[in-house]
Amino acid sequence: MPIAFEHVGYVYADGTPDRHVALQDVTLQFTEGKMTAIIGQTGSGKSTLIQHLNALLLPSTGKVYVLDRTIEAGVEPKGLKSLRGRVGLVFQFPEYQLFEETILKDIAFGPKNFGLSEEEANARAREAMKLVGLDSSFEERSPLELSGGQKRRVAIAGILAMRPEVLVLDEPTAGLDPEGTRQMMKLFRRYNQEGQHTVLIVTHDMEQVFRYCDEVVVMADGRPHTQTSVREFFRDSTLCNELGILPPAIIQVRDALRKDGFVIDDDVVTMEEMAKVIARQVKR
């Protein structure tokens, strides 16, 4: 079932002096079952784009296809609750959305809201807690007692507990330390691979894109500029430089070594592999 945009435009505050065109004639289809990064400069339309996927925003023009639903400009959508149960959207700094008195209740809120019994919802919540690295000792604690990173885990667990078919993430690791970032990205990758779920992630971190994602969509001026595989995107850093995007460290090192005369294959994707290639060429 497709996740696609067909000639979609979106205008904020239309008809007012603050009118702003955020999306312009967007035609785009995401590959199902893949983990796709959505990147681009601030203001390029990334967050606006993903908020159309569970109808938090409705298109000003065009159509959005999500699973078996069509959201069309000018047509009031119906059954949004079921759609939002299938498309889980994690906002940047989602911990600000925590509101229940205990962590277990907060994570179980979504499943209960979508019709599960309290017992089933709590079972889902406990399972999601394990996924994000929170043990049973956290169940009865207040979200207000937690660190920023722990709150982020609780908020993400609340989305995972609903077992969405499509997981949409808007800068989900912003503010996390390096270890917390690695753990979260590995979790999202596992969710993608083990269940063949489609995962879309808005990020400015090219290291995340390079290490964890399959495909990349570059947004620029409210339109898709480029859509390709991650490997192809980083094959030549010229495009990154043109778009003002800093390539991953391994790509920067590779390009610098090539300028110095080293022959580095595109398949070399770790510093360990790079060191071996350099060592062989230096010996010769």
Task: Please render the helix and strand layout as text.
Blueprint: E1 3-12, E2 20-30, E3 35-39, H1 46-50, E4 61-66, E5 69-72, H2 80-86, E6 87-90, H3 103-113, H4 118-131, H5 148-160, E7 166-170, H6 178-195, E8 198-202, H7 206-212, E9 215-220, E10 223-229, H8 230-233, H9 238-243, H10 249-259, H11 271-283
Parallel strand pairs: 3-8, 3-9, 6-7, 7-8
Antiparallel strand pairs: 1-2, 1-4, 4-5, 9-10
Helix pairs in contact: 3-4, 3-5, 4-5
What can you see in these coordinates?
With 284 residues, this protein is of the alpha/beta class. It has two domains: 3-236, Rossmann fold (3-Layer(aba) Sandwich); 248-284, no CATH class. It is 38% helix and 22% strand. It contains eleven helices and ten strands. The protein has helices spanning 46-50, 80-86, 103-113, 118-131, 148-160, 178-195, 206-212, 230-233, 238-243, 249-259, 271-283; strands at 3-12, 20-30, 35-39, 61-66, 69-72, 87-90, 166-170, 198-202, 215-220, 223-229. A hairpin with a 2-residue loop joins strand 4 (61-66) and strand 5 (69-72). Helix 3 runs parallel beside helix 5 (148-160).
